[in-house]
Amino acid sequence: MRMMVATSVVRNVATLVGADQEGKPLDESGPRRALLEQGRRWAAHVREPWIVLVLVGCYVFVTLVLGIPIVGLVARLLLRAAGVRAQLGWSLDEPLASADQHVGYTVLGFIVRLCDAAIYVFLGKLITWGSRLAGGRPLWARHGKRTLVIVESPTNHQMLEAFVSKLFAQSYSFCSLDVHGASGVDHFVHRFTHRVSRGVLIAVGRPDGRLCCLAKTEASLILACKQAAFIANPAYSMADDSGNAPEIVSLGHNPFKPAGVVSHIALPSSQRRRFVDELVYEKLHEVQGELTLKPTRVLNTITTRMLTELTSHGYRSLAHQALRGIEASVLFHAFKELPMGAHFIPREDRTRAVVPPPAANLIAAIRASSVMLRETAGPGSDDPHERLAFATKLDARTHEIQDRQLILQQFYEGRVAALERYISFCVMFHAMAAESSRPWLLRPWNIARSQSNLRVATTAAPVSASDASNDSETVLSETRIKLRLMAIKLRRIISHM
After folding, report:
1. Which residues contact 209 (CB under 8 A, 6 or more apart)?
2. Could you read off the pLDDT of 126-139 as tens digits, one per residue?
3. Could you give the number of structural domains in the chain?
4. Are 286 and 195 contained in the same domain?
5. What is the pLDDT of residues 89-123, one digit of tens each?
6. In 10 A of CB 477, how many CB atoms?
7. 32 lies in which domain range?
């Protein structure tokens, strides 16, 4: 426990908040920079309604006060450039002003004014789309107030929901957001599946699925997020990050980014010591040979080389025999793009055990022709689904070693990793609120205060403290008297017996 606190909590929290234990500022790290940028990005969504309202008001004031609607102004400039002296439109104030000109100019004036009226009607949507294009934000999200859903553990999402609500407690109605919380492995899908719409902000805190006891939890959480991400309106663009679906941002120690997630912020995890199952996965992944890392790539390379070079040298029978061997081999039938397939095959017997003799001879010939089938043997995939597949291929003894780590890993998730995710979300949401609290042309609100002021009870108590103490002494004395009487009666009964 002391080692976890020293290597994980103290160092990582200092990195995330940007200050050490003594309050001295630290250099901005990558995770903290990503948290602040994401908070400011979501702040642009929150501030959007007021910005659009201000820009619409400016356009209306300028065009009406100066009498220069944009379409009418352009039309008049074009007519003057063409040397035409005509008055566009017809007005009830001066019905005879355009009586001496051609009726075509009057009709053209009506069309120009109709276009200006349409611009006034749809000006809010046009400015919203323009601001989103200029800021590189999703285009097709719904207009208006945003909704934030925090998907985390029960403790974290309740505390974060209260924290964000506190930050926006004094916000303006046009520069605020609705906050909800849910547990990703419990009621998120059931409660929010039918509430998800275009532009909903979903903040997901993912446990570290690289640990054996948390792989299923993260996998189920990713599945829940995908169910929310697949809720899209077919009337709009289906491209990624177009605003047609909810904007999902995940956060966790596992750097794996699943499909459907717009952005993922990987928290620092290199400071802590690794668990046994992480070491086992890495070592067994390194032991795997070049034929067991990516079998599909190996198969494609073998068949391509066979058809191009071996057949050109007249080895058609050998190529046909090798092709049949590969099709009947474990490479073709058993391996399904998993990074594990022969964990416990000895290195010297690996080729012989995986590939039948005809294909083995072909591979030897390819190697002799300097065709290298290499793959980077790194620490393996961070995908929790592949970690689960890896765990199913371990023997009973290795499973027993992993089971001994379950309690410690659960403790790490509930007390260390969850705390770091909570602090990370606090940093991101604080940046979002701080950026949103300064609307244009208005006084900024204080994110440190709330409208829920403390009420001091000033009404006098109906019973004084002295009376309560006297009553307790009276009850105590009466109890003693009753006990003495009972003791006297008991002695009399015993003496008569």
Report:
1. 215, 217, 218, 219, 254, 256, 382, 383, 384, 387
2. 999 999 999 999 99
3. 3
4. no
5. 666 666 666 667 777 888 888 899 999 999 999 99
6. 10
7. 2-47+138-273+422-436
